[in-house]
Structures are given as structure tokens and as C-alpha cells.
Amino acid sequence: MNFKHLRYFLVVAQEGSINKASEKLHLTPQTISGQLKLLEHELGARLFRKQGRNLKLTKAGQHALNYAEDIFLLGDELKQSIHNPVSLKQQRFNIGIADVLPKLITYHLLEPALNLNDASRLICEEGPLPSLLADLATQKLDLVLADRPLDASFHIRGYNHLLGECGLSFFATRNVAATYRANFPASLEGAPMLMPSADTERGMGLKRWFERYKIRPDIRVECADTALIEAFGLSGAGIFCAPTVIEQQMTRQYGVEVIGRMDDIRERFYAISLERRVSHPGVLAVCNAARMALFDELEPPE
DNA sequence: CCTCGATTGAAATGTGTCTA
DNA sequence: TAGACACATTTCAATCGAGG
């Protein structure tokens, strides 16, 4: 398989006909037909089926077309990057965000990368930490933001950059908050609670905290996705937690109220990269600017 | 039955590799 | 470095098949 086969295939797919493609490519239809046959043989699948006098992509053809378009896009990028010292590859900042991370925290962590002079394009992928780390290992991602450091259990070589730490606050809608604010934290006994999954750092931290204070809340929802927990919380389904550093924004933007704070168990945020000394401008921006700005400037007033 | 587009086989041409 | 060789690509001519 070579670039030519793919080029002919791409043009035939775009034109819907070998004849039209041959005019566009300044070749005879026989040439293109022959090369398409070779490509189909190489891939072991029919790429086109006849529809009247024209050709229509098969399912395999559609699949191949997606790849072909990507390959030529990459080829164009390569050409551009040869003439441009700051390549497009460098300008893209592929970042994985563990789904347990609150969206507001994520936004503040990534904001410095948006303000870079070279106008990086931020490509965000959200998901479970193990799958994001697998993508980091294969260099699909430049950086992963997580609520826990990379350790030996992941079997991946990488470096942790601590971005900051803070306590947790308990939030709820006005009516729910009014019921449970007095006598906090004892008031949480039997309170409707929206819990992070038990396998997340926050979930484990909360569990320990409840055990220490001998509190048994009524757990209504348990899930790793903080956005979903917040959605339940905003509908009045129960009490949920978020980092204390975004307390003001939570109350201002979502109209929820603070019930109390949990300062004795700290939540930490990490940037995980493959390099010890990161050189990617986006990674640097997150690791440095965010570390300095977020947890100092956003600390809520006492 | 004619036209148009796809396909096939044979031959020509182009390109890369090996060897003396 | 030139010539031989192998292989890929392209073209020409003929054929097939669908649609009008």
C-alpha cells in the first residue's frame, strides 16, 4: 500500500466515479481501476460496490476513507511543519482529564494554556484514569490531570507534578443546606449524600472522614463523574462535595449553599507527564502557571 | 440497441537495486 | 558508473454490464 493507492481511492470516493476521478487526476480510468483493485487486495476487503453506473463506498470503504483523510491531513501537517519551525503537532495540546476532576477546577488548571502566545489548540479527552494513562503511555496525550499521583500499580513510567491541594466543602440547594447546616458535621448522620465512587481518591477520603466522625449518611447516588453528581445535587437530590477553592464560584454560578467544610482530609491535584522536565509549552503552562495561580488566588476568604 | 462507465489482459514505460 | 534485472505503474484495446 502506498500514498498513490490512497490518493486514487480518496478521489474516487470524493467523486463517486472512477471516470471523474481519472479526469481530476489526469490518468486513464484503467489505471485507477487497477490501483484500486490492488488496494482492495492489500486490505482484503471491497471498498466500493456498484450503484448504477457509479461506485458507492462499502462499510469497509467508509472506514478506509476516514483513515485516508487522516493520513493526508497528517501529510499536509508534515509539509507545513517542515517550513514552520513551530509545528502544528507542537501547537496541539492533547490533555486527558480524569472524570473525577471537578469541571471548574479543570477549567482553572487549563486556563494558562489558553493564554500562551503560540495559541495552542486544547484537545481535551475525559475518562477513567487508567485509560487516560494508557493513552499517555502511547503519547496520544501530552498530559493527564488527575486526583491521584501515578504509582507502580499503573505499570507506566511517568512523572507526577503536584498542582495544589485543598480541603473539601459540602454543598446543597438552599432548602437542603438549611436542614443540615446546624450542628455540622454531626447533622450529616442519615443525610442524603451524593458520593464519589469508592475507588476514587475523594470517595476513599470521604469514607475515612465519615468513619472518623462516626457518621453514617444515607448514600443516594454513587458515581465517578463529578458533573453527574453536581447535576443531581443542583436538582436537590442531596449533598455533594467540591473543592473548597471553588466554593465562591459554586455558590455564585450554581446558587447552591455551603453546609460545612472538611479541612482535615486534603484533596490533591496532579499533572502526570512522561517527561520529568516538561518542554511542551501547554504542559509547562499548566504545571507552572496553574500551580502558582489557582490555589493562591482562588482560596476562599475565611 | 446505444451509450457510458468499469474491468481485464497485454504491452510499454519508469524506477530502484544489484553486480561487474 | 553502466548495464541487467525485477517490479510497479500506466496506457491501449477489447469486453462486460447497467441504464435509457
UniProtKB/TrEMBL annotation:
Lineage summary: Bacteria, Pseudomonadati, Pseudomonadota, Gammaproteobacteria, Oceanospirillales
Protein name per Swiss-Prot or TrEMBL: LysR family transcriptional regulator, transcriptional activator of nhaA
Any GO BP: regulation of DNA-templated transcription initiation
GO-annotated molecular function: DNA binding; DNA-binding transcription factor activity
Start and end residues of each HTH lysR-type domain: 1-58
PANTHER family in the record: TRANSCRIPTIONAL ACTIVATOR PROTEIN NHAR (PTHR30293:SF2), TRANSCRIPTIONAL REGULATORY PROTEIN NAC-RELATED (PTHR30293)
NCBIfam families: PRK11062.1
Family that this chain belongs to: Belongs to the LysR transcriptional regulatory family.
Pfam families, per the entry: HTH_1 (PF00126), LysR_substrate (PF03466)
Presence of keyword DNA-binding: yes
Source organism superkingdom: Bacteria
Record SUPFAM superfamilies: Periplasmic binding protein-like II (SSF53850), Winged helix' DNA-binding domain (SSF46785)
